[in-house]
Design brief:
This protein has 635 residues and is of the alpha+beta class. The protein is built from 19 helices and 22 strands. α10 packs antiparallel against α11 (368-377), α10 (346-364) packs across α16 (465-489) and α12 (381-393) runs antiparallel to α13 (396-423). The chain is elongated. This is TIGR00341 family protein. Keywords: Membrane, Transmembrane, Transmembrane helix. It holds the Pfam family DUF389. The chain crosses the membrane at residues 347-364, 370-392, 404-426, 441-459, 466-489, 495-520, 532-550.
């Protein structure tokens, strides 16, 4: 049967000691003040239940490194770091009960920083505590704490240079990075942020665990903070800018003074040596940290993705940008592809001709599936995305080649759509054509979404490029074909409306794609601002007539809602259409139980004008109800 000696703070007041002893059930076998404790007289079977401050506990463990003692911890007002590091319950009675129920005390890793015994953690640089909450007494207090931590994420951040040398098996590895901060613990289960992202670890796995926070932008940092503060998931995937290393020993150095905190105590140094205490110490962890079986987690995660080389130097140059810098690999691969797509090729011209021909036939046939097929085949995605990148980075050659390629694509498209309209004996404004000669702000929204989709898909290898092709072609091929039809019919209204839609979509897609590339870090703002301002000016100029068209559409919809389904003295109004706004011309069907004459028609016109509050020319269709059937006559 185990024997427990209660070791207490020598400075505790007698009445407080009596109170603690009253709360211990069953009573300890012995009680001793720390200053009266003789390590030489202790045996291996004896358990020490210690209610001491962090500093007192640290001195005790330094004295007993080679004694193989069994140490259990009870809460103490000044035992903050050891309580957190070993998961000790804040309730004195609960912690005492856990000691009574424990069958044995496991060996536990202890970390030391420059031979300074560490109970909880080492925090290097900007504190990572802003990314997780340590809990609160109640729900609303927890919400308040989380929002306070979230606000801190929006401050200006400057990364620091660090050199990390660590054991990787029998060899040593060395990485030179730019990082916001580094967090080190002896075992993951003792720290909330480690528990959420590292599922497998042990109290006695013989490794130090490091999290290296190296964000490339404030946006990614805020995103990670939001997830950990408000939507934490245990075992969640680490973002690419958070590296993880587990090793038996590690050395941190920097060209600048390293600001760090060991168990909350702030210090500075040029170099830090982190290792495990050689002698295993038996310390009983809290119930939630006690393992059912040992486990071994990963050796490293995302180390290769940390900022090194040229990216490291760029990030160290100034404060952390709002949007990330794309990596050299991303630049190389994407620019190679965009420069190829900006060239006018025979394949591009053939596909442009075929897609426009299919779209034109589909428009004449009023067939949406055929038009969609033409959208998928169209090759316009490549040069437009290349133009967006050229404008963003002020690359004159990329802009020139892209514009030439787009120009020849438009010319080829117009040629074949004009040719088909000339040889086709049809001149009817069906729904497919009408939908593309009255552009408004909704079409601009479609263009912007298409541009974002195209740029994002091009920048991500894992996304199929055909998805972006559909998104962009949707907005460009049909209006190009309708513009050719307008020329073939010699109809200025059809041609003008279709060309306005084509220009709207081209400007909207280019602007949105350039802005997306900027947010993805493919250009600094100082280089991109000129191209963005020019494209924004063009977009605003185009948006003005679109706004007028949208306003007109809203007015038309308002008139239709005011009349459709309304009962007037002469019958029920149905199938209301606005044929023309200036002057106003309506097409209306009226259902009546009686035949109507010319005087009735004039009265109906007056009743409709009274409802809409303005004069109008009306094409009236009469439906006379004779019993159940309804017949219609055109007046």
């Amino acid at each position: 049967m185990k024997k427990i000696t209660f070791v207490y703070d020598p400075e505790i007041k007698p009445e407080k000691l009596d109170e603690l002893l009253e709360r211990m059930d069953p009573k300890p076998d012995k009680k001793l003040s720390l200053d009266k404790l003789s390590v030489e007289n202790l045996n291996r079977e004896e358990w020490l239940a210690c209610s001491l401050s962090d500093n007192q506990l640290r001195k005790l463990l330094d004295q007993t490194k080679d004694k193989e003692l069994n140490v259990a911890l009870l809460p103490h007002p000044e035992m903050e770091q050891a309580r957190k590091g070993f998961g000790i319950n804040t309730s004195f009675e609960t912690a005492w009960q856990e000691i009574q129920e424990a069958e044995k005390i496991p060996e536990t890793d202890l970390m030391q920083v420059d031979e300074h015994l560490t109970f909880n953690s080492l925090v290097v640089g900007t504190s990572l505590s802003i990314l997780y909450s340590n809990g609160a007494d109640n729900f609303w207090e927890g919400v308040k704490t989380r929002f306070s931590q979230l606000i801190k994420l929006f401050r200006r951040v400057k990364l620091k240079p660090y050199t990390i040398t660590y054991k990787n098996g029998k060899e040593k590895s060395k990485i030179e990075i730019a990082a916001m901060g580094i967090l080190a613990v002896a075992h993951c289960e003792s720290n909330l942020i480690f528990r959420r992202v590292i599922e497998q670890s042990g109290l006695d796995d013989g490794r130090i665990h490091l999290l290296i926070l190296a964000p490339k932008s404030l946006f990614s940092l805020i995103q990670f903070g939001l997830q950990n503060l408000f939507f934490p998931i245990k075992g969640g995937t680490l973002p690419k800018f958070v590296g993880y290393i587990s090793t038996s020993e590690v050395c941190l150095s920097s060209s600048e003074r390293i600001q760090f905190a060991v168990d909350g105590e702030e210090k500075e140094a040029k170099e830090l040596k982190i290792s495990l205490v050689e002698e295993k110490i038996k310390i009983l962890p809290g119930a939630r940290l006690q393992e059912k079986e040992p486990s071994e987690g990963p050796k490293s995660i995302n180390v290769a993705a940390l900022p090194t080389g040229r990216l490291k130097e760029e990030l160290l140059h100034s404060y952390l940008p709002w949007v990330r810098h794309a990596t050299a690999e991303e630049f190389k691969d994407l620019f190679t592809l965009l420069r190829t797509n900006s060239q006018t090729s025979s394949t591009y011209l053939v596909l442009m001709a075929l897609s426009t021909m299919i779209a034109t036939f589909g428009l004449f046939g009023d067939s949406a599936p055929v038009v969609i097929g033409a959208m998928i085949l169209a090759p316009l995605m490549g040069p437009i995305i290349s133009l967006a990148m050229g404008m963003l980075r002020q690359d004159s050659l990329l802009i020139k080649n892209s514009l030439i390629t787009i120009f020849w694509g438009v010319i080829v498209g117009l040629f074949f759509s004009i040719l088909i309209s000339l040889i086709t004996p049809l001149e009817v404004l069906n729904d497919q054509i009408l939908a593309r000669i009255r552009p408004n702000l909704l079409d601009l929204g479609i263009a912007i979404a298409s541009g974002v989709a195209g740029a994002y898909a091009y920048s991500k290898e894992e996304i199929s490029k055909t998805l972006a092709g559909v998104a962009i072609s949707v907005a460009l091929v049909p209006p190009l074909a309708v513009a050719g039809i307008g020329i073939g019919w010699m109809d200025q209204e059809v041609f003008g409306g279709a060309m306005l839609l084509l220009g709207t979509n081209l400007a909207g897609i280019t602007m949105a794609a350039a802005l997306t590339f900027l947010l993805l870090g493919f250009s600094p703002f100082r280089l991109a601002k000129r191209g963005l301002f020019i494209s924004m000016g063009i977009l605003i100029a185009i948006a003005l007539p679109l706004g007028l068209s949208f306003s007109k559409m809203v007015k038309e919809n308002s008139i239709i809602q005011d009349l459709s389904g309304k009962e007037i003295p002469h019958g029920l109004l149905r199938e209301v259409k606005v044929v023309q706004m200036e002057p106003l011309k309506l097409s209306v069907t009226i259902l009546s139980e009686n035949a109507l004459d010319e005087n009735d028609f004039r009265a109906i016109k007056a009743e409709i004008e009274e409802k809409i509050g303005r004069p109008a020319s009306i094409e009236l269709t009469l439906g006379v109800q004779l019993g159940a059937p309804i017949t219609k006559a055109k007046e």
